[in-house]
Specification:
Number of helices: 15
Bound molecules: manganese (II) ion
Oligomer: single chain
Helix content: 25-40%
Shape: elongated
Largest sheet: 9 strands, mixed
Number of strands: 16
Length: 484
């Protein structure tokens, strides 16, 4: 998509890349046997390794490796059969070792690509630079006590996948679409829960600007730990505008690390950016290089599930859905599964309409997730069939849906109990029509005198008299005949 920021003098372009830290779903931490359970009491799940005790040796968790390879395959990326762990040295209270075990020159996953869809109907491929695995730091808590900071080591040593993209984003919306797609991919794969608000997926954005048509890149600012898709888009837009203002005042930008302020929507200065050299990376002496075999990679491939892009294509092809509907229905695996179950053996397009319309509206209004839905896929499927086979009208189906929501049972049962079956018996409908006509001689005269728009009035009266049960098509046919 074309997106520029115009000022009185110039037209500017955004150049942005993302780095996303995803907490790996695994029972234990990446280099120790301590539990990764979220929400336990502070410092309950801490081994000697996580606490940085001297002489402790890390042992690599196989499951974390498998999850990273799976994610790499999901990003259509190169899996590296040889990778190396490195020490990234820095001093901070959340890392008592004085270093983080990560990967540097030789990451486990190399170049890949992810397709994103945009609101203008276009799509774009975003380049993945790499994915490497590393340990998370402890969590510092600064807001519990005005004079003290607390540290919770439960998070220390939890496995992370750091996913780095190429600087391919030219619009805040593109970054937003990518984050949503990535979240959807890791959730489908079950490799990360993707909950940005809980910090299990954290986004850093590198942002610079340049004049439209300008080649090369200018100095960039890195915005740290943005915790929602909306905030990421806001941070990119406002940071770009800040830089543009500085350039247009005749100043320059220094490479720096900044923080997003949720209340103002602006970014604020944190520190001048450290360069890779500052970390004194060197190969981790306590861990050997990691070798993966072709057989192993093939084995992981066999565990891959159908991912959102492939599922979307299939839904469009098999059920005749629009790209837009297929997009929403495949955003999560739960929604896709629900739809597929409901659509099985029924009209998929109509099933999609009920799910995206009445069902989602009711779930939203009651703040329920799809898993908590009182209405099952089978109920939706049967409801669509009842309309298709003229057992009930579309209008009655709306009422059936309301009953179903309040008192969940199969729609056929509701139709039976409440006597909602559509009347298709022409004799019975004719009787109702005759009584309506008999009660409205003035309107008949007016109709015959040229007020033909009264036809709708008669239809309405007949439907009302039949309590909505008469088949509207048959009502129309008979009425037309009777009114000449
Ligand atoms: Mn990192």
């Amino acid at each position: 998509m074309t997106y520029t920021i115009k000022t009185a003098q110039n037209e500017w372009e955004i150049v942005c890349g993302l780095e996303i830290h995803c907490q790996i779903i695994s029972k234990s931490k990446i280099f120790s046997g301590a539990s990764t359970e979220f929400g336990d009491d502070a410092n309950e799940n801490v081994s000697f390794i996580d606490a940085g005790m001297p002489g402790m040796l890390p042992v690599l968790n196989k499951e974390c490796v498998r999850q990273a390879v799976k994610t790499g395959l999901g990003l259509n990326a190169q899996i590296n059969k040889y990778s190396v762990f490195s020490r990234k040295n820095y001093f901070y209270a959340d890392q008592p070792n004085g270093y983080q075990i990560t990967q540097y020159e030789y990451p486990i996953v190399g170049k890949g690509k992810v397709k994103i869809e945009l609101s203008d109907g276009s799509s774009k491929e975003i380049g993945i630079t790499r994915l490497h695995i590393e340990q998370d730091a402890a969590k510092s808590i600064h807001d519990l006590n005005p004079k003290k900071s607390y540290i919770d080591f439960n998070r220390a040593g939890v496995g992370l996948m750091e996913i780095v993209t190429e600087p391919d984003f030219r619009a805040p919306e593109e970054a937003g679409a990518f984050l949503k797609k990535l979240r959807s991919i890791v959730r489908y794969l079950g490799t990360c829960d993707g909950n940005m608000d809980e910090g299990s997926m954290r986004c850093d954005a590198s942002i610079s600007v340049r004049l439209k048509g300008e080649q090369g890149m200018r100095e960039r600012a890195e915005i740290k730990n943005v915790n929602s898709v909306k905030f990421a888009m806001q941070a990119i837009e406002n940071e770009a505008k800040r830089q543009i203002e500085i350039y247009e005042q005749g100043s320059t930008i220094e490479q720096q690390t900044r923080q997003f302020d949720q209340t103002t929507g602006q970014t604020k200065f944190l520190r001048l950016k450290e360069y890779a050299d500052d970390y004194r990376y060197f190969p981790e002496p306590d861990l050997p290089p990691l070798y993966l075999t072709d057989d192993y990679i093939e084995d992981v491939k066999k565990e891959m599930v159908e991912l959102p892009d492939a599922k979307k294509e299939r839904f469009i092809k098999d059920f005749g859905l629009t790209a837009y509907d297929a997009d929403i229905l495949t955003e999560s695996r739960q929604t896709a599964d629900f739809f597929e179950k409901a659509a099985k053996g029924h009209d998929g397009k109509k099933v999609a309409n009920w799910i995206l319309g009445d069902l989602f509206a009711n779930l939203n209004a009651n703040k329920l997730t799809l898993e908590q839905s009182p209405i099952t896929p089978e109920m939706i499927g049967e409801l669509v069939d009842l309309i298709e086979t003229n057992v009930i009208s579309g209008k009655i189906a709306k009422d059936v849906f309301v009953y179903m929501w309040e008192n969940p049972k199969m729609p056929s049962q509701i139709v039976e109990e409440k006597g909602l079956k559509q009347v298709t018996d022409t004799g019975a409908i004719e009787t109702v029509i005759d009584s309506v006509l008999a009660a409205n001689p003035d309107n008949i005269a007016a109709y015959k005198g040229g007020k033909t728009n009264l036809f709708g009035f008669f239809v309405g009266q007949v439907m009302k008299a039949s309590k909505g049960a008469a088949n509207p098509q048959i009502v129309n046919e008979i009425l037309k005949k009777k009114l000449g």
